[in-house]
Amino acid sequence: AQTVTQSQPEMSVQEAETVTLSCTYDTSESNYYLFWYKQPPSRQMILVIRQEAYKQQNATENRFSVNFQKAAKSFSLKISDSQLGDTAMYFCAFMKIMYSGGGADGLTFGKGTHLIIQP
Amino acid sequence: AAGVIQSPRHLIKEKRETATLKCYPIPRHDTVYWYQQGPGQDPQFLISFYEKMQSDKGSIPDRFSAQQFSDYHSELNMSSLELGDSALYFCASSLEGETDTQYFGPGTRLTVL
Fold first, then answer.
1. A35 Cβ partners below 8 Å, 6+ apart?
2. B22 and chain A in contact, CB less than 8 A
3. pLDDT computed for residue A30 by the predictor
4. Do A47 and B101 touch (CB under 8 A)?
């Protein structure tokens, strides 16, 4: 079984600043995906960014980027030029790759980091 | 773009009653997942289906069952409801061959009184 740990329950930064959310995981799998999901007050789960473990290049989506360290089992999210709309709960998630029979494994989530962007 | 549809959005039930939650995946998506998120908790994976067959099973109670139909929509049936079943229930869908990305619906908020 895999575990995902987010050690920062809450973070607060000023608008336009850069913030980094940390995530570590533990698994015996060699091939998997990692994700960051955002959950604003509406409670909708929104995909922010994904990373394939077999890719060494860190994923980037506009103001969001990750620092993926496979050997250290670390997957941090950096948000640049933070905006008020970035205020949300951020969940790090793990998914192993299933090769036989199709379909996919469920996501294992961390406990989340509540990010507050101050005006 | 079309998203995952869940119904109902809100549901109130009494203890020991039954509830049925429905999920309509994004068109062409063939894999459906169910998650339960309690207050202040992270989502917990319950069960998934691919091409109408159970694909993976998580922490789903024996009182719950689910299935995926020929049109790929899915239903989560919950019986003998308990106070602790009060939660937000998410459905997510993905497309085989692109199964790394699960797209979530808006959730069904179940309250058990």
1. A47, A48, A49, A50, A51, A92, A93, A94, A95, A107
2. no
3. 84
4. yes
Q: Which residue has tokens 């109408």? A: B52
Which residues on chain B are in Cβ contact (under 8 Å) with A42?
Answer: 106
Interface of A with B (CB under 8 A): 33, 37, 42-47, 50, 52, 91, 95, 97-98, 101-112
Instruction: Put residue A68 in one of left, alpha, beta given phi > 0 → left and psi -120 to 50 → alpha.
Output: beta
At a CB cut-off of 8 Å and minimum separation 6, what does A14 contact?
Answer: A82, A117, A118
What are the pLDDT digits (tens) for B77-98?
999 999 999 999 999 999 876 6
The tokens 């950096």 sit on which residue?
A: A78
Distances (CA, A) of B77 to A26, A81, A96, B11: 33, 44, 27, 13
Angstrom distance (rounded) from CA A12 to CA B59: 33
Contact A8, A112 (CB under 8 A): no
Per residue in A38-72, pLDDT (tens digit) is: 999 999 999 999 998 888 899 999 999 999 999 99
Selection from A37, A22, A23, A32 nearest residue A1 by Cα: A32
A37, A45, A100, best to mutate vs chain B, most B CBs in 10 Å: A45
